[in-house]
Structures are given as C-alpha cells and as structure tokens.
C-alpha cells in the first residue's frame, strides 16, 4: 500500500528547519515559501556610470557640432565662395555658436579630468 493512501493524521509530521526554527507541515502539503532578500547589486560603479554619462554628453556635443558644420555647408551651397559669404554675413551667430561649443567641450573635459583625479585619490 503506498504511503499516500495513509491518512495524513496517521503519518509522522515532516519538519523543515529554517534558521534553526522547526516548521512542521503535513506530508503532501507544499513547504512554506521562503523569501530571500538579496543585497542590492549594480552592474556599474558610480564612477563608471558618471563616465558613461560624460561620454554620452561628449557625443551629443559632437553631433551638434557636425550638424552645425553640415548646415553651414548646405546653406553655402557647397562652394567656397558661398561658404565665405555665409560666414561673413553670419559672423556673430557663428561666433556665439563656436563659443558655446568651446564652453561645452571645456565643461566635458573638466568633468573627465575630475573623474580621473578622483579615481587616483582613492
């Protein structure tokens, strides 16, 4: 006769020990679910995350600069005379854009230098 045919109250109890505490359950019942809270893990350290953000910002600045150059070439019609004419006519906006690009590039370089110096201090 299989053991499952014996009524549960005639069988010995099954005991599971969790952390030294006995938990009794009837054979055939599911064991109680144990919830394990794992420590919080991250695939990147904060320094790596900051480096990724700075690289993305640098790429954004590079894309904007390429767009500005492409826009100038398209407006100028691709000719040297047209380019000289457009640059002469729009010297102030081009200068402001160049200053903004230089400031953005300097900011990114300062962030990257700060990241490398903070790593060497540890």
UniProtKB/TrEMBL annotation:
Keyword terms, alphabetized: Membrane, Transmembrane, Transmembrane helix
Keyword Transmembrane: yes
Residue intervals passing through the bilayer: 51-77, 83-110
Protein known as: Integral membrane protein
